[in-house]
Amino acid sequence: MAADFETFEAQLREANEEINRRSGRPLLAAVLTGLVLGGLVMTGIFFKPVMVIVAVAATVAGSSELANALRGTGRRVPRIPVIVVAIAGPPAGYWLGSAGLWAATLAGIAFVALWRIVEQVAPARRVGAALLVRDVLASTLVILYVTFLCSWSMVLHAQPLGEWWLLGCLIVVIANDIGAYAVGLTLGRHPMAPTISPKKSWEGFAGGIAASLVAGVLVATLMWQQPWWVGIIAGLLFLGSGTMGDLAESLVKRDIGIKDMSGWMPGHGGVLDRLDSIAPSLVIAFGLYALLA
What we know:
Structural class: mainly alpha
Strand order of the largest sheet: 1-2
Number of strands: 2
């Protein structure tokens, strides 16, 4: 009996190591981290003040990760103003709506640019005009890519029944990720973008399509009270935005020369590694809500 258990344990360990090798991540840690994050998000979905806190925490973490990564390439992205803007973005979206978010974003970009210009007074931080423009553009990227996109979650969440549209968006995007991951891991043979993200395959992309469409139809009919064809459209839109967001972040990481934005989330990498497909999808989710709800 003991020998049989040891054999089973060895086989299980070997299978887990093979999955970790093929996926490039510790699967158990990824699952446990995902469950914890899912619990936080679900709590925030139905208790809106909690969601504001969750959104601020995610935006601050993602902005910090991208700013640090860009600073590692020599771009002087000022941390303090970038974090201040990240803290202000989600509350602005929640309490002031889309107009408030746009105003906060533009004011944030101006604030960061002014901060970087004032830093020129210090000789140690003084650079030429071309490098100064590069630093400001890098800071603008952090604000637009992380704070601006992620804060649309709160614009949507503040709407009547907006929590259901936000939850539906997350379900479809996550279904796409899981479908692409599972099919790519088991059947992936043909790389989709080998120079940008070597582990992504066309087989995985097909799995993501199927999962997105099924999840989209279920979300539209059962959660949004919309016709089934709305789910098809939503599934395809979220598939496109999620895939492009994922590839865009992979391109940034490849250019910077890193695998993950950070190691803050065991099995997942950094916060931004999980937000890459979600962030651009939030804008689409709000657009669908504005048109259909």
